[in-house]
Amino acid sequence: MSHLHLSLLPKTRPLLLIAGLVLAAHGSASAQSAGSWLLRLGATQITPEVTSGDLSRPSTPGSKLDIESDTQVTGGVTYMLSDRFSVDIPLTAGFKLNVIAAGSLAGAGKLGEVQALPATVLLQWRFGAADAALRPYVGLGPTYAHFYKARSTAALSALTGGSPARPTLLELDSKLTVTAQLGVAWRFAPRWALDASVTKTPLKTVGTLSTGQTIEAKLDPMSASVGVAYRF
Q1: What is the pLDDT of residues 200-221, one digit of tens each?
Q2: Local structure of residue 174 (DSSP, 8 states)
Q3: Share of the chain above pLDDT 70, in %
Q4: Residue 81, phi then psi, degrees to nearest 5
Q5: pLDDT at 8 exceeding the cut of 70
Q6: Cβ-count burial 164-197 (b if 16+ within 10 Å, e if not)
Q7: 142: closest CA among 126, 160, 122, 127?
Q8: 3-state secondary structure of 26
Q9: The pTM is what?
Q10: How many degrees, rounded to 5, is the angle at CA 49 between CA 45 and CA 53?
């Protein structure tokens, strides 16, 4: 009986090999298929493309602002609703944006800084088959741009009549808007992929000073992200 068992092993090896290949192919095919979860970790650079109005009176005509870019560690969670549709939630601890003088105030330097926390949910459409190594995608969804912990500088106080004892304070209105996304995912291992995307967010906000002055600005940030995603 043991002799018969041993003689069958060579015959079953091709079957075992075929079964293994089928399982491996199935694992690849489920890389971005319905029901899959993807966790992502990487970095994002946010670059506001600012169009500034003038600071309201009393101020020098042409008093404008600009905002510098910032880069932070970011992540995300993606759930595949189907082989093509997915829902993505980008994750971030926020960005620190420096507000600098522009227009007739150019050269005055940094006027303040503000923390920005964009809360976004994206519905994505992925091109290609679920088992494709390279899958471009587009996304669209709502964004709530939350601005908090705004701080002003001595330069802003000097320009607006503040003093060390009573510095000019700055606030930036939070806004609800929409974000459009273009990206691509490249699967380099059965459960691992490199993910890169760019987003554009039309965003108009109002800055308010403790002096009562206001300034309107279109920030319209462009963001570029790259990260590594793991499927489970």
Answers
A1: 999 999 999 999 999 999 999 9
A2: -
A3: 87
A4: -70, -35
A5: no
A6: eeebbbbbbeebebebebebebebeeeeebebeb
A7: 122
A8: helix
A9: 0.84
A10: 145
